[in-house]
Amino acid sequence: MSEVPTRDGLPPEYRWRREHLFDSPEAWDDEADAFAEALDDLRAFEGRVTDDGETLLAMLDRYESIQAKESRLWVHARMGTLQDTTDEDAAARMRRFRSLHGEREKAVSYLDGALADAGRERIESFVGATEGLERYSSFLDERLREAAHAPSTEVLETLADLDAALDAPGRTLTTLKNADFDAPTVERPDASEATVTSQTRQRLLRHPDRAFRRRVHEAYLDELAEARSTRAQAFSDHLQGHDARASIRGYDSALDEALGGTFDPNLHAALRKTVVENLAPLERRNSLLSKRLGVETLHEWDTRMPFTEGEGPEIPYDKACDIVVSALEPLGETYQDRVESLLSERRVDVYETREKLTEVRGMALATDRGEAFLHLNYAEDLRSLYFFCHELGHAMHAVSSEATALDGVFPDHLVEVFSFTHEALLTRYLLDTGYPAGHVLDTALGKIPLFVGVRWMSFVDAVYDHLDAGRELTADRLGETYVEVQRAQRPGVEFGEGDERGWMVEHLSRDPHFSYLYVLGTSCGLALADRLHRGALAPETYHGVLREGGALSPDDAFERLGLDPVTAVEDALDVYDGYLDELA
Fold it and tell me: N or C: which terminal CB in the chain sees fewer CB atoms within 10 Å?
C-alpha cells in the first residue's frame, strides 16, 4: 500500500473487532466499575487467607476470576491506543486501567506475606488436602519461591500507588516516537517525496540509490534528535525506575529481577558470550554485502540493503494467511485449524493507518482466557509476512494455553521461542515451495536477531555501569556508549559523525533487559523447527508445552522439548552462516 490510509478507509475485514471483548466504550466503562467494586472481595480475605485450605481456595478462585477480567480490560484499552495514538478517550481509558491495576495490586498485597508466614509445608499440606487447590499449585510454588523478595504489605501498596509514575518515562518515550514525531520528508531520485516513519524507514533504506538511503537515514535521525535531551532523560528515568523496583523487592539489580530466579544468570551470560565470541558470520555478512554493493566501506544506511537484486515477491494479506497456515503443517492439522479459525474472526488489525502505532511491525495481545488479537503494520512484502507469522505464534500460544489466569499464558523466559519456531517453519516452507530463494534467505537472515540482541544486552549493561558509577545519562554519553558497542560488535561497518544518535532508534520504552528473550527465542525456535521436520519432536509434545503456559518452568520446558540453550545458539550461528553460503 503506497499511501497511508485513514482507518475508516480500510475495508472492515482488515480491522480487528474490539467488540469481541466489549460491545462499546461504555460497556468497557461498566466493566471497569464492576471490577473496582469486586476488589472488595479480595480485600475481605486479608488476615485469614491461610486459615485453612478452603479459605485459600476461595480467595484464589476469586483472584483468578478478577485477574481474567483485568486482562480483558487491558487488552481492549490497549487496542484503542494502538489503533490511534492521538485518541484522547482511548488514552483516558488506558490511564484508568493503570489506576485499576494499581488498586488490584494493593488489594492482594497481603498475599505473599501471608503465604511466607504460613510456610511451604503448611501450604503444601493445604494443596494435598483441599480438592481444587491443586490447580493453583504452580502459582503457589512461585509465590513461595518469591517470598524472599516480598516486601511488607505497606511497601507493596506504596509500589502499587507508584506504578503509574514509574511507568511514565516509558510512556513518554513511546509518545516521543509516535504521536509527537513529525515524520520528515526526503526527495526521491525521481524528485517525488518520501515520508520517513518508523515503518517506511525500513523499506526506504532498501532503495538501490545510496545517496537517497543516506538522506533517509539522516533525516530520520535529525528528527529524533529534536528531542534528544528529553529522550535521554526519559530513558535514564526508565532504567532507574526498573532498578528501583528491583531494589525494593530485594533483588540486586533490574536484570536479577528480570531473570526472577527461574533463569540461571550464568546461562544468560553464556548466551551473550557465545555470540560475542563468534562474530565471524556477521563480519562475513558485511563483507559480502560490501562486495554486492560495490563499496569499500559499509555505513549504517547500507546495512539493510538486500543481497538479492530486484524486488521481492508482493504478498497480499489474504495470500499471506494461506501461506502461514500451510507453513505450519509440521505442527499438525488441529493446530492449523485453530490458526484458520483465529484468522477468520477479524482479530487482526492488518495495515498501517494514520495515527496508528508504527514503532513496532507487529504485536500480539491476549487475555488470560486465550482471546488473542494481532496488531500489524503489514506492507505486503516478505519481511511483513515474517512479522505476521511471528506474532501469530504468540497468539496461538495464548489460544492453546490451559493455564490459570494467575499463572498466565506464557512461561517465563520462553515467550519468544514458539513465535520464532513459526518463522523457521515459514522459511522452510517458502524454500520448499518455490519462492525466490535469494529473497527468502535474505529476509530470514535479517530475522535472526542474535547479533542485534546481544548488542542491546551489551549497551544496557554499559549504561547501567554509568548509572552505578553516578554518571549522568546525557544524550552525548548515551551516544558515545552506543557507538562504542556498535564498533566492537559490528565488524565491517563504519561509524562516523551523526551515528551516535542511533540509540534513539531503539525500542527504548521496553523492559531494558528484553533482548535476551530474542537471542534465546530465535535459537530455540530454529532448533524446534528442525526437530519437528526431522521427526525428532512430536507435535503433541510441542502442544503439551503450549497447554501448560505459565505453569511450566523454563527448565522443564527445555527438557521436554529436548533443548540446550547454549547449543541452540551455537547451532543458530551455523544456520546464519549456512544462509550466507546460499547467498554468496
Answer: C
